[in-house]
């Protein structure tokens, strides 16, 4: 297999481990189509390379700006500016992006060798898609996670329906509909991370691999676990959701988003007030679609869930095209015009009908022609 072209990525084999660094730090390592293709090519090449016993994914450091120190982030998601431009100009590369991104994420989920996600700083959206497919997810003290897509008129894609729906109780509905930031302690408690380690210890781990290479995937896993145990993350924050699970389950078990908000209004806690305040800025329609997505995904196999998401995202840009798209409007308000005043349509939850939600789940392609028809779970 030919060596893939790498754009905004760095790759090297260190001590039997393929190390990939997302290298678009000024954009918080947000994924472009070229990055997706480079990652996919590397993983395919290394899957059959006997000299590579596992893979480690990491993010690069953002350079210091305006007196602020350098900071390392894993990945802030997909390149939403590209999505906006492509959707408003009719660029069909937007279809390629989602098809290929989902295929990449699925490959990570079923990869035949251990894949380690070293999670520092922001890990959101597409970054969560990469991380949650990994067999070992290491959070550091700086890690901050979220699936905030309803804020931009999208839904938690990249298998968000799959991994959120498998959180305990109705926490997944809360994380997907509301999109709150969670810390490393939350990630560990919710099963969205496997272990924790000090961010600064990664260099030592890579040096140890150079000095004494691993000879199998099992050895990589064993040494990573030992390294994490020897280098615990300092000052790891307690889970922010600790003690809230009963409240979350009560409210987010309701049948629809309107009922969820009514339930939250009956709760005079500060958490309920903050949750309502967050939801007030999100797309009413896409919060409703997200709730349905997560509940359907709870009973779906991974490949089927990716195929459902590919249908959903096609509808996000084609039920209403161009500037009329809920997603295009959300990105415009957040990242293009930056007025933070999205004009959602419909504007209120009361105007969202079951038929509007169902439209996002209507098949686009016959089974034999689906862009992700070839995905197979291990």
Short structural description:
The chain has helices at residues 33-47, 80-89, 93-109, 126-132, 160-165, 171-178, 184-189, 202-211, 217-230, 245-252, 257-265, 270-279, 284-297, 302-318, 326-336, 354-359, and strands at 9-14, 17-22, 54-59, 61-62, 71-72, 115-119, 122-124, 136-139, 144-146, 182-183, 195-196.
Outline the structure in words.
With 378 residues, the chain is α/β, with parallel strands linked by helices. The protein is 44% helix and 11% strand. It has helices at residues 33-47, 80-89, 93-109, 126-132, 160-165, 171-178, 184-189, 202-211, 217-230, 245-252, 257-265, 270-279, 284-297, 302-318, 326-336, 354-359, and strands at residues 9-14, 17-22, 54-59, 61-62, 71-72, 115-119, 122-124, 136-139, 144-146, 182-183, 195-196. The strands form three sheets. It has a six-stranded mixed β-sheet, with helices on both faces. It has a three-stranded mixed β-sheet with strand order 7-9-10. Helix 3 runs parallel beside helix 4 and helix 3 packs antiparallel against helix 14. The longest helix has 17 residues, at 93-109. The relative contact order is 0.12.
